[in-house]
Design brief:
The protein is an all-alpha fold. The protein has one domain. The longest helix is centred in the C-terminal third of the chain and has 48 residues. The radius of gyration is 21 Å and the shape is elongated. The mean pLDDT is 88.
Amino acid sequence: MYAGVRSIFSRYWRSYGGLRALVRSPYLHLAFVLLLVTSHFWSMEKWWEQPLSILPNLLGFSLGGLAMFMSFGDERFRSILTEDTATDQPSSYMELCSTFVHFIVLQLGALMFALVAKSLDFHFPWPAEYRAIVSVFTVVFSGMGYLLFLYSVSAMLAATMSVFRICSWYELHQKNKPSHDN
């Protein structure tokens, strides 16, 4: 069971581009900028309420979008997208699918992080010598959670642009079709 889960996540991560794509992502960079701008909010407030109210709806929309994306185009166009690249690189179709999957995985991760953060919001009488450490840990934990939330939202733009990319490819495909196929 775990081998299958590991295998499918490895396939997704490889199709997405791995750590290199993650580090170079302008959407992650945007999330870091937004994290700095919003630090007054997530470092002092109950930030998890925002992802918990936004992400369930966004997740439903994302899954519907993925389903629509997977049925896009005619059979000939989909076969062009899935052509073997003669290398170990994923096909264009897999790259586009992995963008959506990445978007959804981020949303689920942010949602789970927010649920855990909310469940940890209770008073515990820490001894005085640990309060400063717990306070720093809380701010770091909050920053990580809010960053994940911001990245999941900014990745919406990546998924949107992937849909636009495939639409532009489809338009080109339609224009290049022989006239008897139209």
